[in-house]
Design brief:
Elements: H1 4-12, H2 20-30, H3 33-38, H4 41-44, H5 52-62, H6 67-77, E1 81-82, H7 91-94, E2 103-107, H8 111-114, E3 120-125, H9 131-146, E4 150-153, H10 159-169, E5 174-177, H11 191-200, E6 202-205, H12 217-228, E7 231-236, H13 243-252, E8 256-259, H14 270-277, E9 281-282, H15 286-294, H16 301-307, H17 312-315, H18 344-352, E10 358-359, H19 360-367, H20 371-383, E11 387-390, E12 394-397
Parallel strand pairs: 3-4, 3-7, 4-5, 5-6, 7-8, 8-9
Antiparallel strand pairs: 1-2, 2-6, 10-12, 11-12
Helix pairs in contact: 1-6, 9-10, 10-11, 12-13, 12-20, 18-20
Domain DprA winged helix: 334-393
Family: Belongs to the DprA/Smf family.
Domain Smf/DprA SLOG: 80-292
Length: 398
């Protein structure tokens, strides 16, 4: 039976305008989301990012939602899910600035994996790999499995499927993160792979049953792949590949990024070569990669075991590497003018970004767009040189 705190996590996840970033702040400020749910407006206003308009919306929505009744109804279609108060919620995932408030799952949970004692490595890449990319993905996946790593990927066609399949062939552990509900296999040709992972590994999604493969879901999904992983390997990626979004999140989350090189004559290699140019470590061989991964420090297992059922700080620790306030004062400079042919959606997102650092949740609330659409749009605006990202998932005009 779910505990009361799980009911409040689920209820808060339904409140429009309060996304993963603000929910994490609520949990850290109020210790329990039950306290936040019952808090007076003036108390909510003490949390960074909660302005008067948002608080008014929250109060209105709270009055129409009974957390325990909603939990009971929700569980009828979504019987298995985790919230950050659960001991099996992935510790590494909670450390990112935007941990999913609800994580639905199929398959077998492993508490050692959740607590970081079995490290995960993300393997991502293009849906249309070359023979070189597929062959090296299979080699690296099996080498990692034999060395005790869990393979994390997105169940997409191409590199993702190669990574999952080769892992399973040697009886390895793999986690697939979806951009849909757990009742929908996307792409459909991966159904057999989906069923095998559900039987032998673990499938995760932040989307409830019935959620379709919306465009914005996949950039959001990529942050979970990066968050679950101690390192991310980009095996093959053209310049606009979604795998590069995963690598970008990995950098933001202080994960190691590795990239497989190939000839500049191969378009599918350009994204990987650009990552290497910008500081990603080169994958030269299985042994070289394993040696580099072996240098990653293990999480403090002993302390975590003491704290699993301990006080609030153990459940909702404040990360030391993610600032929660603006970093420094910037001199005023003219803002970069957007191009005349800027897409309307991008223009709407840009208009919601202020000169001072603006949180992702604030942008989502102003635009009324899905968080995945906003994340994807912000990435495009960053590439265009119109916005820059600050620590703690904040964005500001350039």
């Amino acid at each position: 039976m779910a505990n009361s705190e799980q009911a409040y996590w689920l209820a808060w996840s339904q409140v429009k305008g309060v996304g993963p970033v603000l929910l994490k702040r609520l949990a850290q400020h109020f210790e329990l989301l039950e306290n936040a749910w019952k808090a007076r407006p003036i108390a909510l206003g003490e949390v960074e990012g909660f302005g008067q308009k948002l608080i008014e919306k929250i109060v209105g929505q709270r009055n129409t939602l009974n957390p325990f009744q909603f939990l009971e109804e929700h569980q009828q279609k979504n019987p298995q899910f985790l919230t950050p108060n659960d001991p099996d919620y992935p510790r590494l995932l909670w450390e990112i600035p935007s941990p999913p408030p609800v994580l639905y799952y199929l398959g077998r949970l492993d508490h050692r994996e959740s607590q970081g004692q079995i490290p995960g490595v993300g393997m991502v890449g293009t849906r249309y790999p070359t023979e070189h990319g597929s062959r090296w993905t299979r080699k690296i996946s099996q080498a990692l499995v034999k060395s005790g790593f869990t393979i994390v990927s997105g169940l997409a066609a191409g590199i993702d499927a190669d990574a999952h399949n080769s892992c399973l062939r040697v009886n390895g552990r793999t986690i697939a993160v979806l951009g849909t509900g757990l009742d929908l296999v996307y792409p459909p040709q991966n159904r057999q792979l989906f069923e095998q992972i559900a039987a032998e590994g673990l499938i995760l999604s932040e989307y409830p049953v019935g959620s379709k493969p919306e465009r914005g879901n996949f950039p959001a999904r990529n942050r979970i792949i990066a968050g679950l992983s101690r390192a991310v390997l980009v095996m093959e990626a053209p310049p606009k590949s979604g795998a590069l979004i995963t690598a970008k999140y990995a950098n933001e989350f202080n994960r190691d990024v590795f990239s497989l090189p190939n000839s500049p004559d191969i378009p599918e290699a350009h994204g990987c070569l650009n990552l290497i140019h910008n500081g990603a470590e080169v994958i030269l061989s299985e042994n070289q990669l394993l040696a580099s991964l072996g240098a990653m420090p293990l999480l403090d297992q002993g302390q975590e075991q003491k704290n699993v059922q301990g006080d609030h700080q153990a459940r909702y620790p404040v990360p030391t590497n993610v600032p929660t306030s603006s970093t420094g004062t910037r001199g005023k400079k003219p803002l970069t003018e957007p191009p005349e042919n800027l897409e309307p959606t991008l223009g709407k997102i840009l208009a919601a970004v202020e000169e001072e650092p603006t949180t992702l949740d604030q942008i989502v609330a102003v635009t009324a767009l899905a968080i995945g659409d906003v994340s994807a749009g912000l990435l495009q605006l960053e590439i265009l040189g119109l916005v820059s990202q600050e620590p703690g998932m904040r964005y500001q005009r350039r």
